[in-house]
Amino acid sequence: MLDLSNYILSPEWSILSSKAIFKETYYPCCPEPYPDISFYILIERQSKFYSYILILPCFLLSWLTLVLFWLPPETPAKMVLGR
């Protein structure tokens, strides 16, 4: 198990599991072992983050653009919204 005490929580990702595997390999050419450490971290993306930050503002801007077409051309509010 990895020490995640210094991990700073992220609104985009959550860590589901983590592990480290230590392995020593001996080769015929050399008497000393060669250490190998592999880290495995399983993360999950938080889709709510993207819907609030990206998708919702784009939807609102598209909706406001359509509202401009529903207003009559001589309406003064159309000039205010179209700036």
Itemize the secondary structure elements and their pairings:
Blueprint: E1 13-25, E2 34-45, H1 47-70, H2 76-81
Would you write up a description of this structure?
It is a multi-pass membrane protein. It is a single chain. It contains 2 helices and 2 strands, in the order E-E-H-H. By secondary structure, the protein is α+β, with helices and mostly antiparallel strands. It folds into 2 domains: 1-45, no CATH class; 47-82. It has a two-stranded antiparallel sheet. Strand 1 and strand 2 (34-45) form a beta hairpin. The N and C termini lie far apart (56 Å).
Strand order of the largest sheet: 1-2
Radius of gyration: 27 Å
Please give the alpha-carbon distance between the first and last residues.
56 Å
Order of helices and strands: EEHH
- What is the molecular shape? rod-shaped
Tally of contiguous helical segments: 2
Beta-strand content estimate: 25-35%
Largest sheet: 2 strands, antiparallel
InterPro entries: Neur_chan_lig-bd_sf (IPR036734), Neuro-gated_channel_TM_sf (IPR036719), Neuro_actylchol_rec (IPR038050)
Organism: Protopolystoma xenopodis
Transmembrane segments: 49-71
GO cellular component, one term: membrane
